[in-house]
What does this fold into?
Amino acid sequence: MSGHYRSFKTVVYIPAAIADRMTPEKLEYDYDFIEKYIGLDKVYLETHRDRLDVNSEKILAIKSFLEGKGVEVSGGITTTIDDFEGAEAGKRRLFNTFCYTDPAMRTRLKEISENVAKLFDEFILDDFYFTNCTCERCIKEKGDRDWVTFRRELMKDVSQNLIVGPSKAVNPKVKVVIKYPNWRESYHFTGYVPEVQKDIFDATYTGTETRNPMYTDQHLPEYLSYSLMRYMDNAWPGGNGGGWFDTYQCWSVDRYLEQAYLTGFAKAKELMHFMWNDLIDNPLVGSMGIQLRKIDKMMDGIGKPVGIPTYIPLASSGENHFEMRLGMVGLPIEATPVFPGTGKKVLLTESALADDSIIDKLVSFVKNGGDAVITTGFFEKTGDRLREVGLTEARLTGRKLGVNRYQVTGDWAGYIDDKEEILFPEIVHGNNASWSLLNGGNGDYHFSLFLRSAYGKGRLYIMSVPENDADIYRLPGEVIEVYGRALCENVYGTGHNFSVFAYDDKSVIVYKYVKENNHPEKVTLHLKTEAKEIVNESNGMKYEVRKTVGFEDFEKDEECVADVYIEPGRFEKLRIV
Ligand SMILES: [Zn+2]
It folds into this structure.
């Protein structure tokens, strides 16, 4: 790959309004600024958004300037449109997204696609390519179908016949890229259908703009910037063009940079900085340049990301982002829309229920020797069937109980008292029909938070999920260790507000988030393979490895563990030797 970096390209988006107002002086100044601080490899230059269609001469002048500097230039469109003459008025369209049943709007979209394809050999759709239109015409066209089915069929037609088809007719070479938003759990409600669009578009792009987890509209954990990238890689192998983040609601430099770190750790081919004007004279960009060089060096030649296979079918929702929060307490997560049929481990949340044959898959996975962990959200809706098959005798009582102490049972024994109360759903089980690996208690009562039963050659674990997702971050390290022992095949960590990114070449990246009240910490890495030592690649520091042994099912359960000192806002690349 030629350009400023070996592991990825740095890319900036120029929206239509910025292109329209661009002057030669501004272009020169802006280019110099971006080039100086982050290095500019590629630009997506937008021709249409809202009321604006940028005149072709203007687009070509910007394109020609940038290409003269050695920058690759592709096109972009945002599928939003103001009311115009000929289109039906009075529709309550969110963000001015199209009504895709309106004949005049359909004609406009086709023209917009043809226009951009005449100017570029590649263009991308910004993530306003959804529909929530419920106008009278859409209600009528939907007919007897449900909204999800109607929108799936509608957007298949629009993708084929108004975007990709017409653009390839005017430019057979054109590559059409669809960017998916950061809200995966709602794609199917709004006509985003990767399972269908994968066969229509040439490539995808992933929204990794996680911004502020406390206030952003999509309420996303930081870890999404990594795990949604991995999910889209698995959904569309080889076709994920890059990750896309922005400066919005990033009220610290670190929050802004973390989006790029995690997108980079997921091995994005392109890092899209949205958008041109937001970068200019912005101090965030100076820090970004320094960090991109470090990430590039770390990621150069690194192996394939690995983690706990978490099956999340396309067009699903339920217990949204739960697995991402596990990713933020040291468990590496590999989210995938493909059921890991031959694997040893799988995590299933409520989202997995979107797969009609999930129970059959789960039963055969466990019977053949796999370890499956299901959440209480999954269990709540499948309990009857799992009891009928014999995977468990346990049930949820429907009560939510406050837990202020934890007990790790058996040979990993641990007693953790006097913690702030967290609410959990209560699981009851048959003594010795299944075995509780972790109990939660309050007063003179306790119940299982992590329950194991055997079936065929494998095991089923039921994990009790806190009522408030954010409470996952307050779970003691000993609790995370119980999950890690059951779920991880290679490496995981115990500590606070940090992630472990694992790769199949024994590389590990650790990162501690900059959050309120976060501070440096000695975290523990748990390795499932034999290891002599752990080496920090950036400073050569070596960490001693010691062996710990637990017993599960009276089988030896060994781990090599090492303590590693990490600071918030600093990533470290480690090598297991
Ligand atoms: Zn409509």
Remarks:
- The first strand starts at residue 9 and ends at 14.
